Amino acid sequence: MLDQDSKTATSTSTVDAVVIGAGVAGLYQIHQLREQGLSVRGFDAASDVGGTWNWNRYPGARFDSECYIYQYLFSEDLYKDWSWSERFPGQPEIERWMHYVADRLDLRRSIQFNTTIQSAHFNEATERWLVTTDSGEVIDTGFLVTCCGMLSAPLSSLFPGQETFKGQIFHTARWPKEPVDLAGKRVGVIGNGATGIQVIQTIAEKVEHLSVFIRSPQYVLPMKNIKYGAAEVEGYKSRFKELAETLPHTFSGFEYDVEHTWAELTPQQRLDVLEEGWNNGSLKLWLASFAEVFTDEDVSAQISEFVREKMRARLKDPKLCELLIPTDFGFGTHRVPLETNYLEVYHRPNVEIVSVKDNAIESVTPEGIKTTDGTVHPLDIIILATGFDAGTGALTRIDIRGREGRSLKEDWSKDIRTTMGLQVHGYPNLFTTGAPLAPSAALCNMTTCLQQQTEWISACIKYLRNKNLKCIEPTQEAEEQWITHHEELANATLVAKTSSWYMGSNVEGKPRRLLSYIGGVGDYRNRCNEVAEKGYPGFDLH
To answer: Is the four-CA dihedral 170, 394, 68, 520 of positive or negative sign?
Structure first.
C-alpha cells in the first residue's frame, strides 16, 4: 500500500480508467465508468469532493445558475431526494449537496484525495497512459479522463513583493476552511469580476475599510434570490421531466432560451423583453433576451445602454458611474455577474474605489499595495479575486505528453486546439471535459454541459470495449475542421472582438482564441451525438 506520508514512495497499479477531479464532472464520470464494470481510480488535490465548491469558499460564494437546473438529471430519485433552501444557494449548501451525491452513489471509495497528478505520459508500446502522483505512485491506465475544471488554475502570484506583505493574502479560489476574521480590518480586494463582486458586496459592512482595486468596470444584473419553502421545492421537483428534456437543448443549458428576433419587434416590444429579463433577477437578460446582443453592434449598443441606464439609476454619483459602468465594450461580451446590492456598496463611507486602469498596481509592500503613482494603500488583508488561466491552465499545469513525447503545454502555448473539446490530436485515449472549444469552457450551465460530455465519453469507451478496440484519437484533419467551424462562429460575434478571459486575454502570452464554443449547447450536443451515431468518423480507432 502506498505510504501517504512519503513523497518518494513508488508503486504501480493498473486500472481501466483514471479520472482527475472530483467535482461535478468527475463524480458523474466515475459513476458511469464503474457502472460499465471498469476499474476506476479518481484523484483530487482537495481533501474531499466538490471541485470548485470545495475550493471557492470565499465570503459570498454562491450559484448564479438556479439551483434546480444546476443538478444531475440522470436519476429522478437523486434529483428529488435533495431539497434546496433558496433559488441561488451559497457555497456551504452546495458543498453539502455534492457530499450527498458522493455518499448516495458511494463514490469516495474510488477517489484518492490530497493527491496532485504531476504527469501523464502516453506509452506508445502499450498504448496506455502512465500517470504519476506527487507521492510517486504510478498508475497504468487504458483511459485518462480529465475533469479538472475550466476555472481551477488560479492566477495568484501576480504582483512583485507579495511575499513581503505583513498581513494576510488570500486568493478566492484557495480560501481556507478556517474562518477568516475580517472585522475591524483594512481589506483590499483586487478584481471585480463575478467572484470579486460576490466578495465585495458581502464583506463591505463587516470590515473597517474596504479598498476595491478596479481595472475594468463590469455590467451587472441584479440577483433575485427567493427563499424556498415546501411549495417552491415541490414546484421545481414537479418539473423534473420537463427540465431533463429541455435543458440539454437550449442555447446556454439554462431553462430559458431566446424567443424573439430584434428586427421583428417594435421599440416598445423590445423594451418589454429587456425589462422582463432584467426583472427576472437571473442571467435571462444576457442569455435569453436577444441573440443579436452577441452579433449585431447596433443591437449590442442599445441593450448595453439599457443596462447602463439601470446602473446609473442606482449609482446616482457621476464619478461612481464613470468608474463602475463600462463604455468600451458591449453588454454580454464579457462574463455577466449577478449581484445583490453590489453597486450600493460604493455609497458606504468605509468603501473606496482605487482605479488601476491608468495607475496600475506596481507592487505589494509590507504595508499594503503600491500603485505606479507612488501611493501605498495600507492594508491588513489582501484578497485576490484575480481569476484563472481558464480552460487550459488546469491541464497545462500537469506534464501531459502524448505520442512521440509531444507536450500538451507546449502545443497549447502555440495554438489552443481540441476536437469538440473532448479529445486532442496526438493524445490517444485522453478525454477532456471543461476544455477549450466546447460550451463547457464558459458559456453553459455547467452541470448541463458536463453531464453531456461525461456521457459522451462513457459511451465512447463502451463502444471501444464492445468492439474490442483499444484506442481512439481524432485525426488532424477532423481537428482542423472543428477549429475552422469554431472560428467561423466565434469571429461572427462581438465576443471575439473583446478582450476578456473568454479570449485568454488575462494571461500574458496565451494564444488568442475564444475558449468556449458559441454555437449553442443544443447544437453542440447534436454534433457530438452525430459523431457517435456514425461510428466516430474523423477518429482513428484500432
So the answer is: positive
